[in-house]
């Protein structure tokens, strides 16, 4: 049976994937109300969502998932029947230099959101309910040269970031097992596309190439990641939300493995022509640097369960997706300049006039 929520609570909707999801979901489901709860950390950018300002079905609330009172009030006031939980600290490098906020947001914040959701769901004010935890392939740890992660692969997180996501995934599982709460859990590979914060590999490369800055490649550059266009991820999330059985876990991936150095070379080459530079010129910016501690060697995600159960498969080829992404960054230099200068942080105050909820 298809579940069609009437009122969604999206957490972390001002970030990269959350904002792409809101655009995609609202375009396809114009009758659904969407409340975006985001506390606007450095990664939250309301400029990702300017096209929705004035839409009567869209509401932004500046608040923390760890604030039980705010969460409880929104669940009740907005008659929320589904929570799609993106809010997190998401950058592995930052989790190595400062793990505490990762535990606070990703583990404790998720537990508070789950607990308020449980009370709301058990109060019976909504006929049906879903809690969808957005997670990562990184919870499964690292692979050798062969094989891929399935939903049955044991969790073996290696970084403070992935450990905090694994902790949250287990809490989600526990709320299903203990309380029968209708939870869902997706685990996706590396996303790329518009609105990606330029601390992450692909937008960092594009930004640095444009500005002729060094391109830092960690270690030997032979670590492997699977890349999926963020809009394909958004469509997969919608399919899981509407069609998956409560308690289900789904992997999401692009069947698109790349060694980091090959991605770096590709982005360099695609930008040579677009920037009017000679063939191979951008590759001279490549700089091998000290490896990330505990750097997972290879991720490969098996998403066949999602395809066979729910009929999802990626619409983008990588060739099309990466070219479009590069062109998006070139056409949206103002967005990038705002992020790199920090100007985007003031946007909330100019639009919403301060800290009131
Ligand atoms: P992001 O860092 O771009 O965005 C995170 C958002 O969460 C920001 O808008 C931030 O302000 C908000 N946030 C952080 N702490 C909060 C709190 N306490 N309360 C409310 N809002 C808070 O992250 P992303 O790359 O869009 O990732 C979104 C989710 O998807 C994360 O849960 C991440 O683990 C998961 N994920 C990401 C990828 C990827 O490739 N980026 C892949 C798989 C899974
Ligand atoms: O796999 C899903 C995960 O993908 C998500 O859960 C995370 O939230 C998301 O940040 C991403 O994690 P990664 O660590 O894989 O992404 P990042 O873009 O930081 O790095 C991609 C690869 O590139 C990784 O092997 C490290 C390497 N790298 C990264 C940066 C930023 C470099 O070689 N140089 C760099 O400057």
Task: Identify the notable features of this structure and list them briefly.
single chain; 357 residues; alpha/beta; Rossmann fold; 7-stranded parallel beta sheet; 3-stranded mixed beta sheet; 41% helix; 16% strand; binds nicotinamide-adenine-dinucleotide; binds 2'deoxy-thymidine-5'-diphospho-alpha-D-glucose
Set down the secondary structure blueprint.
Blueprint: E1 7-11, H1 16-28, E2 33-38, E3 58-62, H2 68-77, E4 82-85, H3 92-97, H4 100-122, E5 130-136, H5 160-179, E6 183-188, E7 190-192, H6 201-210, E8 215-218, E9 224-229, H7 230-243, E10 249-252, E11 257-259, H8 260-274, E12 286-289, H9 304-310, H10 318-331, H11 333-341, H12 347-352
Parallel strand pairs: 1-2, 1-4, 2-3, 4-5, 5-6, 6-10, 7-9, 8-12
Antiparallel strand pairs: 9-11
Bound molecules: nicotinamide-adenine-dinucleotide and 2'deoxy-thymidine-5'-diphospho-alpha-D-glucose.
């Amino acid at each position: 049976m298809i579940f069609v929520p009437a009122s969604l609570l999206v957490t972390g909707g001002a970030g990269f994937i959350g904002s792409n999801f809101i655009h995609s979901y609202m375009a396809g489901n114009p009758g659904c109300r969407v409340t975006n709860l985001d506390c606007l950390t450095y990664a939250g950018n309301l400029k990702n969502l300017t096209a929705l300002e004035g839409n009567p079905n869209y509401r932004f609330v500046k608040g923390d998932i760890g604030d039980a009172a705010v969460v409880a009030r929104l669940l009740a006031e907005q008659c929320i029947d589904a929570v799609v939980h993106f809010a997190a600290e998401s950058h592995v490098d930052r989790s190595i230099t400062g793990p505490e906020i990762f535990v606070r947001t990703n583990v404790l914040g998720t537990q508070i959101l789950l607990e308020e959701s449980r009370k709301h769901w058990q109060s019976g004010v909504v006929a049906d309910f879903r809690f969808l935890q957005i997670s990562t392939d990184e919870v499964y740890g690292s692979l050798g040269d062969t094989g891929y992660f399935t939903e049955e692969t044991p969790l073996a997180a290696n970084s403070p970031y992935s450990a905090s996501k694994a902790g949250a995934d287990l809490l989600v599982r526990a709320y299903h097992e203990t309380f029968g709460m209708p939870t869902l859990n997706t685990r996706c590979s590396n996303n790329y596309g518009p609105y990606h914060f330029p601390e992450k590999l692909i937008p960092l490369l594009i930004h640095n190439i444009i500005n002729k800055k060094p391109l830092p490649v960690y270690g030997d550059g032979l670590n492997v990641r699977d890349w999926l266009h963020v809009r394909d991820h958004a469509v997969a999330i919608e399919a899981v939300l509407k069609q998956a059985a409560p308690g289900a876990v789904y992997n999401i991936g692009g069947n698109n493995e790349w060694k980091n150095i090959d991605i770096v070379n590709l982005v360099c080459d695609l930008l040579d022509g677009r920037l009017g530079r000679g063939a191979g010129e951008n590759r001279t910016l490549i700089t091998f640097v000290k490896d990330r501690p505990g750097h997972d060697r290879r991720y490969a995600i098996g998403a066949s369960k999602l395809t066979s159960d729910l009929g999802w498969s990626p619409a983008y080829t990588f060739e099309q997706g990466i070219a479009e992404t590069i062109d998006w960054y070139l056409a949206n230099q103002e967005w990038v300049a705002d992020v790199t200068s920090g100007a985007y942080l003031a946007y909330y105050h100019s639009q919403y006039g301060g800290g009131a909820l």
